[in-house]
Automatic annotation (TrEMBL):
Organism per entry: Fictibacillus halophilus
Alphabetical list of Pfam families matching this protein: ABC_tran
Entry protein name: Phosphonate transport system ATP-binding protein
Taxonomic path: Bacteria, Bacillati, Bacillota, Bacilli, Bacillales
Superkingdom: Bacteria
Molecular-function annotations in GO: ATP binding
UniProt keyword annotation of DNA damage present: no
Keywords per UniProt: ATP-binding, Cell membrane, Membrane, Nucleotide-binding, Phosphonate transport, Translocase, Transport
Domain (ABC transporter): residue spans on this chain: 2-247
InterPro entries registered for this protein in UniProt: AAA+_ATPase, ABC_transporter-like_ATP-bd, ABC_transporter-like_CS, ABC_transpr_PhnC, MetN_ABC_transporter-like, P-loop_NTPase
PANTHER family per UniProt: AMINO ACID IMPORT ATP-BINDING PROTEIN, PHOSPHONATES IMPORT ATP-BINDING PROTEIN PHNC
Amino acid sequence: MIEFKNVSVTYPGAKEPSLADVNITFQKGEFVCVLGRSGAGKSTFIRCINGLQPVSEGYVKWEDKTLSEMTHKETLEVRRKTGMIFQHFNLIPRMSVVQNILTGLFGYKKSYENLLGLFKSSDRLQALEAINQVELTVEPTRRVERLSGGQKQRVAIARALVQNPKVFLGDEPVASLDPGTADRIFQLLKETHVKRNLVSIINVHDVVLAKKFATRIIALKNGKLVFDGTPEDFDDTVYAEIYNHSS
Ligand SMILES: Nc1ncnc2c1ncn2[C@@H]1O[C@H](COP(=O)(O)OP(=O)(O)OP(=O)(O)O)[C@@H](O)[C@H]1O
């Protein structure tokens, strides 16, 4: 469904590529965790998937279409199909839970409707359903700045859900949460993933979480794809190879 072919990314002024000649394909139903040391290229990789980061060489394909050759409309469609979840949640602090979730519907609306905040009652119903699905028990009208980290991440997931995504992309979604909350958020992501038969590709620092939830683990080192296998294959030898400090 998503294919990387000889993908490299070199940032302006950089001597070395941050992503180097990556070849990989992802299929529906895969729950992929991306591992690697800090600076290995994980965020760059995730952002290439929906074109937030343009590639310097090679291409990324969604089904049979190359991202860089898509029309504006097709690119927007790809973004709409992608639910992104970030470490710092990317919510609007002074807006309420339900208002934040409704922004997930922007991809379905005309821009003037977004500007005027025009939502139908069926939209609000959808937002309330998403709140139920992520088991968020706070008042929908509460401002998100007053929520805990775990609650904020649930709002972010609910916002991604109303988008009706085909793909979940996570850039360190649990990095700022305590271990118990991180585990519960991963549980929720995995359940949603299974229910909706998504492709999920999630950067994570915690190898234990990756091994517990992933159906496939990949690892980057200095921008190169150095591991692609099952959680069982990701053993101590592989761990040492990926996280050691020599190049
Ligand atoms: N916008 C940018 N401009 C220049 N260099 C960048 C940019 N973004 C990332 N880099 C560099 O590219 C490399 C890979 O960064 P990236 O953020 O993809 O790694 P990462 O594995 O996600 O790291 P972390 O786990 O710390 O978030 C790093 O050397 C980083 O400094």
